[in-house]
Structure formats: structure tokens, C-alpha cells
Amino acid sequence: MKLFPVYPLFDINIVKGKGCHVWDDKGQEYLDLYGGHAVISIGHCHPHYVEKLTHQLETLPFYSNSVINRLQEELAQRLGKACGYDDYQLFLINSGAEANENALKLASFHTGRKRVLAAGKAFHGRTSLAVEVTDNPKIVAPINAGGHVTFLPLNDLEAFTAELRKGDVAAVILECIQGVGGIRMATPEFVQGLRKMCDETGTLLICDEIQCGYGRSGKFFAHQHLGIRPDIITCAKGIGNGFPMGAVLISPKIEATYGMLGTTFGGNHLACAAALAVLDVIEEEHLVDNAAKVGDFLLSELKKLQQSNPHITDVRGRGLMIGIEYDQPIKDFRKRLITDEHVFTGSASTNILRLLPPLCLSMDEAREAIRRIAELKF
Known about the structure:
Blueprint: E1 14-18, E2 21-24, E3 29-32, H1 35-38, H2 47-59, H3 70-83, E4 89-93, H4 96-111, E5 115-119, H5 128-132, E6 149-152, H6 157-164, E7 169-174, E8 177-178, E9 184-185, H7 188-201, E10 204-208, E11 232-235, E12 246-250, H8 269-284, H9 287-308, E13 312-317, E14 322-326, H10 331-339, E15 343-344, E16 346-348, E17 352-355, H11 363-375
Parallel strand pairs: 3-15, 5-6, 5-7, 7-10, 10-11
Antiparallel strand pairs: 1-2, 2-3, 4-12, 8-9, 11-12, 13-14, 14-17, 16-17
């Protein structure tokens, strides 16, 4: 049996990680500015994280959600305090796609409606409902094309308002910073206007914080830069620092009933141990503040690089979520960053480098990142 091809693979076998660095099986070290699709929040192999998972693995890795799990209760309290939503309810699952899937179901249960509004270039996952609200027809299978979703341009409040006034929309789902869409940011005016219109029309506002949340933007959630409170918040990626986990934060105005949602593996003991260790490190090492500080420095230095590099047409982002837009495709450039400069980055579209390093990236590592990116020529 062979593996089903999912991504085109770089010919590199990564076998070890520490902090913001990884090593291949030949001993070559790489600066990791991508964190495995924004998953690594506190750094690779943080000692506290390893200790907590090892202890839980030796104690009780898993039991079903039919019994009390005090780790879930502790996580709900800790997460509520850390992000400022201690009056919300927490539902734990296994991935970002599952988080969005359940958020959309909740909105439909609560409103009794079917329609959803999403932004152009959005990416919300690959499961049934999540892929419907993802603006990429190539990954929407015929069975997933339910016709429930209307895509509208990001930041076009007039277009969203016109659809919301029809009164049949269950939810608006939004990334306040689009990741796969190219580090495109929602404006305060748009999001605040959207919040007002959702309130007026009985529509739920879902903020997808799977990539832009968990401290990455320099606040715990990216929407907190914009002065609104969503009805539902979805999380994954950084919540487990590599352990598969997702979460839905649910406004107290949404009533839960037994059987509405369910999960076998979600919020298991090992997953909760990982998430609690992540919160420990984020708080003790002030990683949200670090993301803001180092991110501001990176943005400033990359904008200086833009002035001297005619191929860079834009630099944008917030915190440690940054896009560098070029005037031509970057596929070969990104590959040479890995092979020649030993730097991992992501990409978006055909011409945008996407930087999503661990939140522990230091100033010295940021300076080194700038040097290596500047060193490589088209």
C-alpha cells in the first residue's frame, strides 16, 4: 500500500524540532517560519509541554465523554479567563474543520435557517459544511455543493447588508485575517457594521480564529483588534501545539440541549493536557505580547525590504501572521528559501509568502529571518 497523495512534497524528512527550529535526517537545521500550517504556537518540543503530555500518557490518555473529565472543566475555566470569554460555553473536538462544521450547525439549530454568508477567498475547512463556506470550487465535491452559501467580497458591508436584510441568513462566518486567502484583513468598519446588522436580523456571527487566533495576531483573538464580540468563535491549530484539537466557544445566548452535538475523541484527556500546557506557556512566557512585539518588528523591517526590492509589491499582516506579496509566482523562490537559505515559509495564491512562525520567535530569530529572505534573489 502507498500513501494517497495530498500535498506535493519537498524532498526533506524532518525528524527533530526545538523552539523555532527543525532538523532533517541529514542533520541540516532550518528556521521554521511556518510552524506546520500555524499549528506550533509555543515552539517545538517545549519541555513543559513534553512533561505534561508524558505524565498524562502514563496516567490516562483517553476515556469517553460519558464520564466527568476534570481536565475539560479546567481547560474551559483557563481558556475563558485567558481570552476574556469566561461566560461562553466550550465544545471540544479534533480539528478546525470540525469546529466550523459544528459552529454552522449550531447557528442553524438556533435560528432555524439554512443560509450562510461567507467572504470571498475564505478557507474554513474540507468537511461537508466547512468546505461549502470555503471559496475554492476545486475542493468542493458534488455531494458538498448544497447551495446554502453566498460568497461576498471581504469588507463590502453594503453587499453583506443587502443579503442580511432578506431575513433568512443563519450565520455569517468570517476570518478577521484570511490566511489561505493571502493575509487579507477585515476592517474595523466592516466588522462593526456586520455585527450591528447581524444583531438587527437575528443572524449569528461566527469568527473563525483557527489560523489567526490563539495569540498569533498580538491579541488572544484577531477579532479583538476590531472591537466586536462574536456569537461563536472557532479554534484549532495553536490550541494543541501539534496535538489534534479544535474548540467552539459559544455565546450564552445559544441554548444547548443534550444530543445536539457529540464527539468520540474530542476533548480527550491527552488533548486537554496538551491544551493546558499550551496555556501555561503562553501565559508564563507572555507569548501574546511577544507575537505583537516581534510581529511589529518583522512588519517594519519587511516594509523596509519592500522599498529596496522591486519584486515585493506589498507587505501586510498583524502580529506573527504576515504576507509578503511579490509581482510574480513564488513557487521556485519558496523552494530555494528552503534548500538554499534553510527557511520554511508558507504560501498563499501563487505570489504570496505566508509567515506563521511559533509565537516564541525571538528578535534575533526575526533578524535572521529578514537577512535570509533578503539574501535570496529571484
